[in-house]
């Protein structure tokens, strides 16, 4: 079996680990804090609801209840044709007070800007399973 996408870029692994380890704890602490992970023109699809831009994402996050999130694992891949985009798939469980524990699947497309030593979420999907 060959890997047509080429090797995994080493920066992709570091970026993915940072998002996987820091994003969800920040989300549970403060919806304001988690906005720092998103680019200004980020697009988020949350359980089928499409949101564009950091401001719209922030307004939506303010409507969500406090939750407990457990990350079970993640997978990372450099987007073919560029080493500036990383795809990260995270899966785990989420629980809101008074609700059942549900599994989730979340995909991030993260844009790397090496000149600024920065990586920000451009596209993000979150789906309860």
Automatic annotation (TrEMBL):
Function noted in UniProt: Has a role in nuclear-cytoplasmic transport of proteins and mRNAs.
InterPro entries, per database record: NTF2, NTF2-like_dom_sf, NTF2_dom, Nuclear_transport_factor_2_euk
Keywords: Cytoplasm, Nucleus, Protein transport, Transport
Protein name: Nuclear transport factor 2
Pfam family, one: NTF2
Organism per entry: Tritrichomonas foetus
GO biological process: mRNA transport; nucleocytoplasmic transport; protein transport
UniProt domain NTF2: residue ranges: 15-128
Cellular component per GO, a single term: cytoplasm
Transmembrane segments: none
Subcellular location: Cytoplasm; Nucleus
């Amino acid at each position: 079996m060959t890997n047509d996408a080429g090797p995994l870029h080493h920066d992709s692994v570091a970026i993915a680990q940072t998002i996987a380890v820091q994003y969800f704890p920040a989300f549970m602490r403060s919806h304001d804090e988690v906005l720092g992970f998103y680019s200004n023109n980020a697009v988020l699809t949350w359980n089928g609801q499409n949101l564009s831009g950091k401001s719209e994402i922030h307004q939506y996050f303010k409507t969500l209840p406090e939750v407990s999130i457990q990350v079970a694992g993640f997978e990372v891949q450099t987007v073919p044709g560029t080493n500036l985009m990383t795809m990260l798939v995270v899966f785990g469980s989420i629980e809101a007070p008074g609700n059942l524990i549900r599994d989730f699947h979340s995909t991030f497309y993260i844009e790397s800007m090496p000149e600024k030593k920065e990586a920000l979420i451009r596209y993000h999907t979150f789906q309860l399973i």
